[in-house]
From TrEMBL, chains A, B:
Name of this protein: TetR family transcriptional regulator
Molecular-function annotations in GO: DNA-binding transcription factor activity; transcription cis-regulatory region binding
UniProt keyword annotation of Acetylation present: no
Pfam families (UniProt xref): TetR_C_15 (PF17918), TetR_N (PF00440)
InterPro entries in UniProt: DNA-bd_HTH_TetR-type_CS, Homeodomain-like_sf, HTH-type_TetR-like_transc_reg, HTH_TetR, Tet_transcr_reg_TetR-rel_C_sf, TetR_C_15
Amino acid sequence: MPSSDRRLQPRRKPRQIRAELTRERILIAAAHVFTEYGYAAGTTNRIAERARISIGSLYQYFPNKDAILAQLLIRHIDRGTWTGADRLDLSPGTLRATVQALVRDAIDSHSEDPQLLRIMIEEAPLSQDLLDAIDRHGRIRTAQIRDLLTRHPDVRVGDVGTAADLILFTIEMNTHKMMAAPGSVPVETFAAELADMVTRYLRGD
Amino acid sequence: MPSSDRRLQPRRKPRQIRAELTRERILIAAAHVFTEYGYAAGTTNRIAERARISIGSLYQYFPNKDAILAQLLIRHIDRGTWTGADRLDLSPGTLRATVQALVRDAIDSHSEDPQLLRIMIEEAPLSQDLLDAIDRHGRIRTAQIRDLLTRHPDVRVGDVGTAADLILFTIEMNTHKMMAAPGSVPVETFAAELADMVTRYLRGD
DNA sequence: AGAATAGCTGAGCTATTGCTCACAATTACG
DNA sequence: CGTAATTGTGAGCAATAGCTCAGCTATTCT
């Protein structure tokens, strides 16, 4: 599934180890700079400075600023610390535990660098390709959850598709908020309440 | 509670009707331009052009670009089509209806211009004053909901404060998503499921 | 070693943006 | 009227951004 957007492709493929290292330093620096300054104020010159390479080098591996952030986001999506839905427990009486596993997954995927993730999602001007990639990822997850809801004996909701959308988004956003603005409520407490809400919903009274 | 941030105050107070009209045209144009181009690409010159006034006039009523968007957001907050919590039904067996009223409020406050609201919240560099205003508004709502949860006979949750935070945010974000990306699911269906989820949570099994 | 290739540099070009200011036009008011 | 106050104008300034390119250095290959 190759990206069709030329504007996100590097102009040169690194052929030496040195080059690969430079590319990596750029990405690491970019993550730091975006986190610290946000996307708009995270200039390419600042990234190059932080990576201790010249601005010219940066533009040998990334055709433009967007491509740098795109690469970071792609990596985050691909890494996907996602508990395969098929590995989740489907026996009766375990719905609560199943939901808790979902919540934990969400927390895990946010705990690495919540600030950067927030910037990538909220501030960045995402290209159509990126949006497609995110969408694809979302569809896969939704399908998995829908399948899980269909097969779990304790689940009683009207439309499984709607329910899957609803709980995925709810878990995602609440986790996102919790990680981005920490301190207001203990993580464990909030996670437990969140799991409660979803569980009670799925059990259908 | 006057704003202390000088950078958001207009430099001149309009004294003639003509001036008031100009100010209004700027705000209307800004709403359109921000909606169409986003915040970063919605330049002040574009706003002036659309309002059919000169860029100089724009800067007589707003000290900078941020102030324009701040004014739009303030207005949205102040308008607040908010069903007073005290007007909500607290008699037993009506929890479902009460929650539905909350969901409807959220939908109403988003339906006017969801795209603009998204931009204001997600793209704009909000000043501390703005953030404070939003925070204040949020606290008031949270307090109202907490009060409601405490007094409603059908509500059975552990910590009322956490529950209030959780359901307000969940309703807000799900509504936000539904209005911003329309078409995927019928609004009524989604709203009903959302209300179901919250209701079942609050009833505590 | 020497040529060829790959990688790196950074001054500065081009484009754009938020915003100013000297001035003109309009309105208020005696 | 005539004068002062208010409102409106828009060329252009200063700052900053993304990005290029001519030339340098490092590595690889024969």
